[in-house]
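residues and backbone:
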Amino acid sequence: MLQEPARHEKPTDDASLSVPGVNGWGHDPLTALWEHAQPRRVPARTRLVEQGSIGWCVPLLLSGYIRLCDLTESGEERLLDFAMPGECPLALDGLLGRAATSSAETMGECVIAQLPQTALRDFVHTQPELWQSFTKLATAGWRRSRSQAALLRSPTVPRRLSGALLMLAERFSHHDAVLPAEITRHELARFAGTRPETVVRLIGRWTEEGLIEKRGRQIALVNRAGLRSLASGTQRSD
């Protein structure tokens, strides 16, 4: 999987941005990519890729977060995963030239370079080690999707929500277990398969019980052992 990105300086048309690159790609590969797609700021809730689209550009996320969603058979949108800085969500789809298997949308404001599929394929052809990186990234995403599917089969909302908090803390901030402000109560509800008002109620209760701590719009998991007990069903939260 692509690791924590390094930082590089690259001027853009509207401003000089300090943006992260992808660790292991080096400065020269990033420069080559920037020749095809200048990094740009993208507002929150901008749809970058539509599920099923053909010939779309692969987003290289330089800062911020992206949500990945697909449509169920009933036509409802399902939240699958999140992309982190330094990742290329849906890169494997782009490299294989297939239709996008999910939609990609910015959460907060992001800095993104949109990479034409042909340019990305040419670049990977000269940097074959990147194919392995993209494959590992896709495999990790598939495993997270399976874990979320298993989470949604949990019988009660407290078990699903506590499990969701633990999964997202592992994804976003393994060491300090703080969820970023972009993970709203609505996002948590979608991820855990419940309603936002239920999330608000449980978050308030668990804050009083000392399981979590609200830090502005962020959520810190201060008692992960207690949340694991809830997620496993060994502790009840009625």
